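dumping this here so i dont lose it
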């Protein structure tokens, strides 16, 4: 009885462990799955007034607030300090 059960189990394991050939590679799906390059960033895309909050790394406490004024070109950028002093920025590039 044990030998018959062991042989039956071996046959079931052998039948379930047949190797199947991998499906053929689909080159069309692979080409479609590659992501497109992101759009290039420009100074026009970030132009405006930005409120900047400086926070500690381990908590949400705000240490300082600044205001960044960004122009559409490399000239005209400024950074407003918490004291109210406006600091012009130079060498703005993307």
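and the seq i came up w/
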């Amino acid at each position: 009885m044990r030998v018959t059960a062991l042989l039956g189990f071996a046959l079931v394991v052998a039948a379930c462990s047949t190797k199947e050939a991998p499906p053929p590679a689909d080159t069309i799906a692979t080409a479609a799955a590659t992501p497109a390059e992101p759009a290039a960033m420009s100074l026009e895309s970030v132009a405006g007034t930005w409120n900047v909050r400086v926070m500690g790394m381990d908590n949400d406490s705000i240490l300082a607030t600044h205001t960044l004024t960004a122009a559409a070109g490399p000239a005209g950028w400024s950074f407003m300090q918490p004291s109210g002093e406006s600091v012009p920025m130079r060498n703005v590039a993307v």
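The mean pLDDT is 77.
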